[in-house]
Amino acid sequence: MEMTLGEFEQLVLIAVVRLGDDAYGATVRREIEARARRRLSISAVYTTLDRLERKGLVRSRIGNPTPQRGGRRRKYFALQPLGARALRSAYTAFDAMTAGLERRLRTL
Amino acid sequence: MIMRLAERFALAVIHAAAPRDDREWIVGDVLEDYDRVRSRDGAAAARRKLLDEALRTSAHRARTTIHRLRDLKPTGEGGMQAILNDVQYALRLLRRSPGFAATAMLTLALAIGSNTAIFSAVKGVLIAPLAYPAADRLVRLFEESPKQSHFPMSPADFRDYRAALQTFDGLAAYMRADLQIGDISRPEQLRGMQVSSGFFKVLGYPPLYGRDFEANDEIEGNDSVAILSYSLWMRRFNGDPGVVGGTAAFSGRTFRIVGVLSEGVRHVGSSYRSYGHDETVDVWSVLVVPREESPRHRFSHYYNVVGRMKPGVTWSAMEEDLRRTRVSVARRYPTANSPWTPRAVPLKDEIVGTAQSTIVALAAAAAVVLLLACVNVAGLLLGRATGRSREIGVRAALGATRQRLARQLLIESLVLATAGGATGIALAYAATAALARFGPADIPRLEMIAVDRNVLFYAVAATFTSALLFGLAPALRLARTRVGETLKEGARSIAGPSHHRMRRGLAAVEIALAFVLVVASGLLLRSFVSMIDMNPGFVPTGAITASIELPTARYTLTAAADFYARAAERVRALPGVQEAAFTSDLPWTGYDENTGFSIAGRSFPDGGDPEARYHFVGPGYARATGTPLVAGRMLSTSDIANAPMVVIMNESAARKYWTTPEAAVGARISLWGANRTVVGVLGDVRDMPWHERAAAAVYFPLAQTWYPQPMLLVVRTAVNPASIVEPMRRAIRDIDPQLPLSSIKPLDAVAGAALATRRLTLSLVGLFGATALVLAVVGIYGVMAQAVGQRTHEFGIRQALGATRADILRLVFSNAATMTIGGLLAGVALALASTQLLASLLYGVTAFDPATFGAVAALLSTAAALASYLPARRATQISAASALRSAGSDY
């Protein structure tokens, strides 16, 4: 079944793709804050990532303890085939809808 | 990593708000980001980011919780409508038991109302920023020596520091200098301050018209310039902008008016030679800051100093700047300056200062009352729960889930709390208005106390928190009711042993909380009584005081001495007047002028030179104030300028420097460049009634040394002091028609003002204590009455089996005693831990006063016994037959 993604879910998934092996809460948020210029709380990022995981779009693994975080572990996320398909379909739809409109959309 | 309190707090919030499953990585990520920002943008940015994160995380948590609740459909019924039904049901239930509803609501209203009022005081006085632009950059500067802390600066030090400090945008000095305005027909004493150039720039108030004082004004000869307060400008100058640049006569001197201030300009305030913080000043003149080097500008400390730090300067950089400057000043003037180090205090801390301990103690007391009220209402609800077990059982049997039942019961609590909270807010409005209007004058910023948005938010939060506190336990308990058992066994089933343990536990908590508050009131009461009982050293009643200032433009030493002598004589001659005398200050008003002196034939090892608080008084001072003469003689009318120079010492000074008062009489001291003989010793008067002892003091005769400061006339009368006011005014007017009398007050009102804050604290804490006592008694009564009611059946059987009335009484009382003793033990522990909060408000009694603790324990035990007596008596009156019959009907 094709899964439709919410806008915030798309942002999170794209950040996960971009970050590759280094995708965990703090880096995902940093990407979104830096690129999309949105301020968000770290727990909102995890709420979304957890939901994406429940839907089978990403999978997580717990990293090793690192001393600079007071020994706290990181939770890394990676894209799953289901997630890749959902993201691709969202992107294709967006791309198809905006084709030829790029310039107008930018100057709206 | 070392973190400040704010960071720790923020982390704790994030930790609490993060979902449990994700907590570890969330906190880890936050710490990682914190370190990144800290190393990139500095500690302040990292702190801001962390606080922001805490806010966002909590907001996110709140949103997700709301979403989850919304998704949670109660079985069979949908969202909002069901809740409305519950509210209606709750209202119906409360209407059916108006006694319960009123008790619970009033308890909550009183508790929430007092907490809201106290919070508005905490916010207005302690938290709200000062009304200056960028007020957090304003600091007060003091000088400290091994012998003096928190001392004003010397004029020369002020000048040197002002020139050398680099971390300040400006430094300004100020001290009180009243002026008079008006002609013979309408003389008026104005509250005035002398301030150095740039004073208003330091505060951040540009004048409404004209300009601030400039460096050039500070030079002797250029100093006849004044700036008007808005109120004086409106009142005496008709609000005419044209006055700027013109002249006006103040105190017989012509001043050029260089500026007018806008409305709402608040004076910095100080406890020394100054009016308090607020719009307290009518007119501002310029302070002549001496340019020439002279010991008298270096050794006398009397400048209040306020400064504005440059933006971006940290506190430690500023202190480093002070240290650097101190080293260079002390190198240049080693004798004068080596003992003195500058000390900076944030202006707000300085203004709020002593009020803080009072307000914090009150806030703590109010919080305890709220807690107590919650426990009490929880007890009431639990009591009602017994009667409702059937109803709940039936509803459960008809298919209501536990969740549904718990929600219903929680909504009942919320309805109660909302009614209580709304009434409480109304009470808080009344209380804050009264506090702002009638609060004691020595609490600063009273006008800031008001119920505003933050205060309302606090009240609403307090309401909901208390609803949760008192509603949760009963709701969970009732909802856990097992259907079968309630219907089978009837009313007694859910009032089983664990239910009783809970109610008794709550009653014990009430006793413990009440103990703490009653002990606190007891300690404050004892302090107050010992303060009042302590011989004040003077007689406050039967005397009236008035302030008068001789303008230096018209008066010199001889003219002033002549005026004081004639005025005292004229007033003394009025019918009903026993004595009249002038003095530089009144007892218990915070007067603090000090001088060093030397004693002929004696030397003191370095640093130990004699020092005394100096006062100026006229001949009748001892009789007028009721201060006893301990040895020697009082000043007489012949101690005048060309007679031998004399002084009076107080008993403290005599004992400190001569061992006995008698030994001091006849001693020769050198003081203010002249040799003087000690001719008498006056009894001690402490600076403030709660001070341990009086400071050493020396009294100059007004007629021998020129002291151009406002003087106070003290008149002791045999008749009602108020009847003397008009004749007194006339007598002064006859001698100098241009001199207004101001601040006319009975001496006991002046003395009473010193105790006003303590009296208010005492009555509020006492009120909280009394409320606590009543709540605890109600709580105990409720538990006992219910326990007896439930054991009717058991008591009946016992009596049938031959138990006497005494046996039954013993049974009931032992039950109450366990509860009371448990509560008292916890109360003692709690009180030991918390009465330290009061330490600074206590006098003549320690925070662990065994007598107070014992008396309060006795009081609470008696109250508990009385509260159990009625139910116990009822228990003995149960007839075996009727008890068994009524119990039988349950089956």
List the helices and strands and how they pair.
The complex is a heterodimer of chains A (108) and B (891).
Chain A: H1 7-19, H2 25-36, H3 42-54, E1 58-62, E2 75-79, H4 81-98, H5 102-106
Antiparallel strand pairs in A: 1-2
Helix pairs in contact in A: 1-2, 1-3, 2-3
Chain B: H1 5-17, H2 23-41, H3 43-71, H4 79-96, H5 98-127, E1 138-144, H6 155-164, E2 168-176, E3 179-181, E4 188-190, E5 192-195, H7 199-203, E6 209-210, E7 225-228, H8 230-237, E8 247-250, E9 253-260, E10 283-286, H9 295-299, E11 304-309, H10 315-332, H11 334-337, E12 341-346, H12 347-352, H13 355-397, H14 402-438, H15 453-479, H16 483-489, H17 497-533, E13 543-548, H18 557-572, E14 577-583, E15 594-596, E16 598-599, E17 611-617, H19 621-625, E18 629-632, E19 646-650, H20 651-658, H21 661-664, E20 668-671, E21 674-682, E22 697-701, E23 711-717, H22 725-735, E24 742-746, H23 747-790, H24 792-800, H25 805-834, H26 850-876, H27 880-888
Parallel strand pairs in B: 5-10, 7-9, 17-22, 19-21
Antiparallel strand pairs in B: 1-11, 1-12, 2-5, 2-11, 3-4, 6-9, 7-10, 8-9, 13-23, 13-24, 14-23, 15-17, 16-20, 18-21, 19-22, 20-21
Helix pairs in contact in B: 1-2, 1-3, 2-3, 4-14, 5-13, 5-14, 5-15, 6-10, 13-15, 13-16, 13-17, 13-23, 14-15, 17-23, 17-25, 17-26, 18-22, 23-26, 24-27, 25-26
